[in-house]
Structure prediction request, 129 residues.
Amino acid sequence: MFINDIVTQAETLKTALTHSTGLTIACYCAQWCNTCTTYLTAFEQLSQQFPQHLFVWIDIEDSPELLDDIDVENFPTILIQQQDKNFFFGTMLPHIEHLKRLIQTTEENLETTHTIQNGPDNLANLLEG
Prediction:
């Protein structure tokens, strides 16, 4: 599933986060960022290759609460999380193949992948405010 407008799709996102058993892959970007504009299409196409996961496009200016008071200075910044576990949070080069490999590696090693302490709280919790 791909959600690209949190403002108008907030309820859909809440439902998806509540019922999701897969990974949530969030991309933090900004509408004014040319790199983000180009990356958006590839991110959406990648979501079609991983229908078991939830892909969320987050404009940091429209939804700053989903950053949990963390400053993002470079784009795209990616979050990979599952419920209350963060597996990755950081800036990536805007090459979608890098994200694809990261998702595949996380999937393959889900039971042994160490969670990280940094990054936003569970997105469902942040949506609740």
Observations:
- The two ends are 23 Å apart (CA to CA).
